[in-house]
Amino acid sequence: MSSVSLLEGDPLAGAAFEANHIAACLERVREPVHIIGTPSGGPRGLALESQAALAGQTVSPGHAGGHQMGTLPPLYPEWLGDRDFGQAHGVRFPYVAGEMARGIATTRMVIAMARAEMLAIFGAAGLDAASIERAVHELSGALGRDRPWGVNLIYSPAEQALEERTADLLLRGNVPVISASAYMDITAPLARCAAAGLRLDPEGRIVRPVRIFAKVSRPEVAEKFMSPAPAGLLAALVARGQLTQDEARLAAEVPIAEDVTVEADSGGHTDNQPLGAMLPAILALRDAVAARRGYRIRVGAAGGLGSPQAVAGAFALGADYVLTGSVNQLAVESGVSDDARALLAQADLADVMMAPAADMFEMGVQVQVLRRGTLFGPRARRLYETYREYSSVEELPAQVRGVLEREVLHASLDEVWAQTVSFWRQRDPAQLARAGEDARHKMALIFRWYLGNSSRWAVEGDTSRRADYQLWAGPAVGAFNRWTAGSFLAEPGERTVTQIALNLLEGAAVVTRAHQARTYGVPVPPHAFTFVPRRLR
Fold this sequence. Notes:
By secondary structure, the protein is an alpha/beta fold. Helices cover 43% and strands 13% of the residues. The protein contains 20 helices and 17 strands. It has helices at residues 19-27, 49-54, 83-89, 107-115, 129-143, 160-172, 188-195, 219-226, 231-239, 245-251, 275-293, 308-317, 338-345, 376-389, 398-409, 413-427, 429-437, 439-460, 475-484, 497-519, and strands at residues 15-16, 33-37, 45-48, 67-72, 95-97, 119-122, 150-154, 177-181, 199-200, 206-207, 211-216, 259-263, 268-269, 298-302, 321-324, 352-356, 366-370. The strands form 4 sheets. Strands 5-6-7-8-11-12-14-15 form an 8-stranded parallel barrel, surrounded by 8 helices. Strand 6, helix 5 and strand 7 form a beta-alpha-beta unit. The longest helix is centred in the last third of the chain and has 23 residues, at 497-519. The two termini are 36 Å apart. The relative contact order is 0.12.
């Protein structure tokens, strides 16, 4: 189709009817664009207001070239989500870099995102208390409470004392945002974090010094976070002197979390649910709870967000903000080794699998991990199958024991147990006491040695254990690699966490604008829905 312009010269200075010119117009999301229809009723086109003004002409009804059918106002990436999200957290963009565990979401990443007016969560899960405390101190010193930042608190049913200590540490460190992940129920430490410091301002509004995020993948869990803390938990916290009566009274009037993230098919802990099914269901639940309770809850989207189209789709479904995880491991600021990052950079959409989780091994909980380039998944599954089949390490047949030692652990069970004892003696001696009375728990601790160390080997880049790297990843990694192929973001050194975020958001705005134009009858070409990464600021 030939270009038909209202103005002579550059087609973008008038009405664009040709496919490439329409796509070019749609990329200029920050400018108003007019939808033009020809008098004959032929195809509709677009005209950028700014270019027409530069040419000294205007696009108006009855112009010789066509009729103005409507105008799409400017569209900024900042406007894709709920504006209340930015006001509540002091950020410019409705975007969160999530808490990749073992410090993979580093303090460096959190600081970079905060300085770019975005929120990031430090990955505290799997770290000891001293490491978390150092991170909190660093973030507090670099960012204070004037810039957005947060730290993860993970559900630890097998290590309740650790969860309690971590909650204490985060509250003492005045962490402004606490992101709760992998929770299936509300615990006392979590309820305490949600209620601590609640007070009324002079106008009688409840002030929350600590804001709680929650990652959920089931409606029944989402409803628990959207509701106030259970009265029994609050009463127990008051009785222990961990909350005041006033804090408990105010906690009964607010939800545990004002920001609930629907986690779809993601890396790490996941139920592998499709976002298109889960998000609308939990949005409807949010509306029902909010109407009943009389307060506001924001709902975000996570899982599978490795391309602008996916991010645009999440916002189109109604997400108030988006949260990314797996893709941020590819950022130069992430805590994984260069060697592990190179493995992730080769992943495609189907190069992931489910494997036993180290922290909830005995419960049968699984996490999604990278499959390509590593044997962690099959080896971890073999350990869990052995745990299910036998009652103790002493019961293992010689052949089974030999296979585990040679092909999985690369160490004898006795050597692994010695290291396990050393680890738990420092971290939680109660685990050793239980193992002394429960042979099956002892076996679980031995097998968890492999599961726990496999993620550490990936972080440290121990190439002698490359085949055992545990890298949490979902399909988003493959989608990201496909999207960035051939662009500047394909270069490892260019993949900063802020460039990843800005390009995903900019691209989502372009995709959204293309969809808007198409709904008004403009023949939008397919390539207008493809955004090529570029250096942004």
